[in-house]
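Attaching the record inline, Q. Sequence:
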Amino acid sequence: MKILLDTNIIIHRETKDPINKDIGTLFGWIDKLGYQKCIHQVTFNEISSNQDSKACKAFLVKMKSYHCLPTVAPLRPEVQSISAKYDRTQNDRNDSVLINEVLCDRVDSIITEDRGLHAKALALGIDSAVFTIDEFLEKVTAENPSLLDYKVLSVRKEYFGNINLDDPFFDSFKEDYIDYGKWFNRKSDEPAYVCTSDENIVAFLYVKLEDASEPYNDITPPFTSRRRLKIGTFKVQSNGVKLGERLLKVVFDNALHLSVKEIYVTIFPKRIDQLRLIELLRDFGFDYYGTKQSPSGQEDVYVRNFSPRTSSKLPRTTYPFLSGRARKFIVPIHQAYHTDLFPDSILRTESPFDFVENEPFRNAISKAYVSRSLNRDLRTGDLIVFYRTGGYYASVVTTLGIVENVNTSIGDAASFVRLCRKRSVFSDEELKRQWDAAPSANKPFIVNFLYAYSFPKRINMKRLIELGVIMDIHSAPRGFEVLSDESFNRIVKETDTDERIVVY
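Structure, as predicted:
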């Protein structure tokens, strides 16, 4: 398999003092699987044009370890059309050349952190072959569980004083911030969220509640007085288990619990892990606000409005709030698969401060549900109540989801696998079996949704019948079935749901 690496990947890999383990993890997997690491002539030209002749020479020597594609595929008409419409700079045109290689089947995939290149892939219908680092790692870890380097990943709450500051994970912070060690030690009696793999730290999150009296003299433009949650530290080492989304859910759960009006973060936009974090935050509604001046330099400030509001078109940007006016559906999920899709350890935890998870594939906010329901009329913003099957007493409603998009036009097994791959916990072989097992008149379709809320209290089929949500024991949902507003409101009330998340 040929993997084309974008220029941004090569630069961060071959820099003089690489401190991003993410790239090392990526390259380790590529080598482990025997894939060919390719670079394009445009990458070679971009790096060759570096004005620092010494740095350029060093890069060109290192690039000999890659397979440089010896020819350039002629631009396909559809790529020419996109290029004419969107390309304004030479970098834009270079992106079109790279994506064209995939469309022409000269390489199998591209790995890039460039959002523009991902957008072009989506427009051309080949986005399933274009990966970010995280997406590629998610794919290969799901397909090759026996090759995983880690044993168990666990996100837990821990005091700073019990966390090893000498772990190499913190090297980038020490480089970025003056006296980072002193700041860290002053926090010794404060809690943070940490994730370890074989005793090595792979993810870290620190959040701080700030009230209306907090001074913001170093932020431009100045903040108004408001109750805020500050993301003080947020770093995830890429490993294919969606820890970024997992920690972001921790942020939102804390923000809801603490009744803040705004969330913000300050960040240096210079390394690939920082740039990737910015893109994740932007996906979930954070907007660039301004800058912060500190002894360590100028940081960018990103802010997320956390007042109760919803977006029917972009539900991520207002997550975890959901619209009480949206259409509602109830759908069954077999008990054997339920724990693969939803983290049971959190479902049974009432405190938003207890986050322990020993199944890496359950970390995502964004998930895919594969269905053969006769009712396929779902759209962005619809609400889903998930009903875990199990019988009269054991069947329970457990989870609320928000539909992001639905794909019902799937031509064949290969397309089905490609569409599921970036969000599914199943291997390609398992997905193909699901497709092949279905009759031709009722092939599965895909509902991509956001895992929004876990009901604090479970109510079973017996109670659902008593509430009038289900008519009788023979009326349990068998696909996506419409749920009335009255039934939805009864579920919300009966499950002790935090009603602040439902916006009318």
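The first strand starts at residue 2 and ends at 5. Residues 344-361 have pLDDT under 50 and may be disordered.

More tomorrow.
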